[in-house]
Amino acid sequence: MNFGSSNRARLARALGAAAAIFIASACATRQPTRPGAAAAPVPAAPNKGARLGTHAPYAITTGPDGNIWYTEYQGDGIGRVTPDGAVVRYKIDKDGFAERITSGSDGAVWFTDTPGNQVGRVALDTKIAYIKLPDNQSGPAGIVTGPDGNLWFTEHSGDRIGRLSTAGQLTEYNLPKGVGAGEIVVGSDNKMWFAEDKSNRIGSITLTGTVTEYDIPTPDARPGGMTRGADGNVWFTELRVNKIAKIDPNGKVTEYDLPEAGVPFGIASGADGNLWVTVVKAHIIYRVTPQGGFTPFKTPDGTIASFITAGPDGNLWFTEPNGKVGRISTKGEISELVVSDPYANTESTKK
After folding, report:
1. Rg (the chain; Cα; Å)
2. Which of 332, 327, 324 is nearest to 53 (CA)?
3. How is the beta sheet containing 234-238 ordered, strand by strand?
4. Which ranges of the chain would DSSP assign to H, the alpha helix?
5. CB 57 within 8 A of CB 89
6. Backbone phi, then psi, for 161, in 5-degree steps?
7. What count of other Cβ atoms lies within 10 Å of the Cβ of residue 148?
8. Which of 170, 229, 258, 331 is the most exposed place for a label (fewest CB within 10 A)?
């Protein structure tokens, strides 16, 4: 699921009012955040849900240093949160923005920069480097570290899958035209599995570049977030049809309807062996068993859980486009951190 201009419009139609948060962030004037500010847990409140800014937390992952790292929705930075709530913001190329993010095998954090048409690397000493893609219309989107230690990423506009070594060697594999490859994860079979949001398929690619595609039973499901479950299947959200689904290594797809509609957005596999799904419009985070049993955890109206990842502390961590990062325990206990202030006027610097 790439969030280029055309796809942002489609997603807006799918998400309704909740998507306006992302769109408003894209249109807002840049407002730098305070550098290195320590965040304190804050209670959720309805008025907090209205705060918007270009530094809105977006994609999220656990880094190689045991901290939580997140990108910013059309912001010029990447944030790092320690499990005890200390926040540092790192400035990146002002002409692009980080889209998706993953932990690299080299001890660095890697990210895709869609408008910059490049893949970026943030070393733990805060040095930032970029590798430009040869085709200036590639649209790098999802990214993951493969079992071979390379970075594997999707090219949503270019209809390719890229393989990038940590030393910068790039290999690209062509996909059928117009598939719209977005999110990508590693499966239990050591293949990379990816969502095709235009062709309504799930694809897989081997380490040697062999691509296989599988149809999603529900038409125009719009596959979005993906994760590998403890059951060995790849699980994904279906943005358009209020469903989540799993696909086994042989390509069999099983779909599950949400008990309450509201756009399933992010999905992650928890330390408890269950799947955790954020449902934006319903203000719910679901815990889902591998057999498809749903347990809802209602969040306050001001909590806008979006992307979600398993944290190093056994909790699930999620981003909120209103300047917060949230944490939910496997028992459903939620706490939140304010990590950015869209109204701050101080200049941000790299720590």
Report:
1. 18
2. 324
3. 223-228, 234-238, 243-247, 253-257
4. 5-15, 19-27
5. no
6. -115, 130
7. 14
8. 331
Report DSSP state, residue 16: G
- What's the distance, CA 234 to chain centroid? 15
Structure tokens at 284: 């719910």
Q: Quick one: tokens of 102?
A: 């993953």
From residue 171, give the alpha-carbon distance in Å to each of 116, 118, 162. Answer: 19, 14, 6
pLDDT in tens, 196-236: 999 999 999 999 999 999 999 999 999 999 999 999 999 99
CA distance linking residue 315 with residue 212, whole number of Å: 34
Which amino acid, 188? Answer: S
Place of tokens 């942002």: 8
Taking the CB of residue 40, how many other CB atoms lie within 10 A of it?
10
In the structure encoding, which two tokens stand for residue 52, read together? 């918007």
Report the C-alpha gap between 283 and 279 in whole angstroms.
Answer: 6
User: pLDDT digits over 4-32, tens only?
Assistant: 444 444 334 433 443 444 333 333 222 22
202 with 195: CB under 8 angstroms? Answer: yes
Distances (CA, A) of 278 to 107, 112, 201, 245, 282: 29, 23, 22, 14, 9
Cβ neighbours for 217, distance < 8 A, ≥ 6 positions apart:
253, 255
